[in-house]
């Protein structure tokens, strides 16, 4: 358990150094804890240290942890592939932002359900900047069209973009993904769509958060570097076949 606190301190230090190097204020970057496979007990260690922005990848896990986490105020994002038939549930378990909206039918299902419940929801559009088959997200050349279409859904508030960068030891290839996301942010902002606020860039994980911060990330999503290695490979979370 002490490891969690120690690890958060190290991530804090990495974020601080990256912000300094990029000439940005530390407050411009939020640390989101990617809590897939992490037990409520361990998540609460991070809460106690003041880190209360978390995100799950699976509706099932969100559901399982909901009760146990409900006594501590926190903010829940959703960062996994969301099936349209799970839309109802996601709204039931207190998610305030779905970062992984990557197709119109999902946006429309959310819109319908939100209208029924008379609710609103923040969303980010997920872009597949690495062009890897294994990753979800709208293709970069379709991102503007998706933004235009999702902007028609008045129950959804588009707050920005999310991506998973290329997994590569070659820094420049990773950087290109993040630069692409930032460029799309500017292009979508320039469309001046009603109700669309392009303020968030959710990018950067345990291995590449410095590059992401240099390229403008406002949310970095960190799991492994805080909670340790996961038992399941990420493909379990990122591939359709395992749904
Ligand atoms: C698991 C996950 C993360 C965190 O990845 P780590 O490498 O463990 O820091 C970030 N974003 C998404 C979408 C994830 O599924």
Describe the structure.
Pyridoxal 5'-phosphate (PLP)-binding protein, which is involved in PLP homeostasis. Belongs to the pyridoxal phosphate-binding protein YggS/PROSC family. Keywords: Pyridoxal phosphate. This is Pyridoxal phosphate homeostasis protein. This protein has helices at about 1-20, 40-50, 60-70, 85-90, 105-115, 145-150, 170-190, 210-215, 225, 235-240, and strands at about 30-35, 55, 75-80, 95-100, 120-125, 155-160, 200, 220. The chain is α/β, with parallel strands linked by helices and about 240 residues long. The protein has an eight-stranded parallel beta sheet with strand order 7-6-5-4-3-2-1-8. The longest helix is centred in the first third of the chain and has 21 residues, at about 1-20. The radius of gyration is 17 Å and the shape is globular. It binds pyridoxal-5'-phosphate.
Topology (elements, then pairings):
Blueprint: H1 2-22, E1 30-34, H2 40-48, E2 53-56, H3 59-69, E3 75-78, H4 87-92, E4 95-101, H5 104-117, E5 121-126, H6 143-150, E6 156-162, H7 171-190, E7 200-202, H8 209-214, E8 219-222, H9 224-227, H10 235-238
């Amino acid at each position: 358990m002490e490891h969690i606190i120690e690890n958060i301190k190290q991530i804090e230090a990495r974020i601080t150094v990256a912000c300094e190097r990029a000439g940005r204020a530390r407050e411009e970057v939020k640390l989101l804890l990617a809590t897939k496979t992490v037990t409520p007990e361990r998540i609460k260690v991070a809460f106690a240290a003041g880190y209360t922005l978390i995100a799950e990848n699976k509706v099932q896990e969100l559901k399982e942890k909901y009760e146990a986490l409900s006594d501590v105020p926190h903010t829940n994002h959703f960062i996994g592939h969301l099936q349209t038939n799970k839309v109802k549930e996601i709204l039931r378990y207190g998610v305030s932002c779905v970062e992984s909206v990557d197709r119109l039918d999902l946006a429309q299902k959310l819109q319908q359900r939100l209208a029924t419940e008379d609710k609103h929801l923040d969303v980010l559009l997920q872009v597949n900047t690495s062009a890897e088959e294994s990753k979800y997200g709208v293709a970069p050349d379709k991102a503007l069209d998706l933004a235009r279409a999702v902007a028609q859904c008045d129950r959804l508030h588009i707050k920005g973009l999310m991506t998973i960068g290329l997994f590569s030891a070659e820094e420049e290839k990773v950087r290109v993904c993040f630069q692409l996301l930032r460029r799309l942010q500017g292009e979508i902002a320039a469309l001046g769509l009603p109700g669309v606020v392009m303020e968030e860039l959710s990018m950067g994980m345990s291995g590449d958060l410095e590059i992401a911060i240099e390229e403008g990330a406002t949310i970095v999503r960190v799991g492994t570097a805080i909670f340790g290695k996961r038992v399941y490979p990420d493909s379990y979370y990122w591939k359709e076949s395992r749904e």
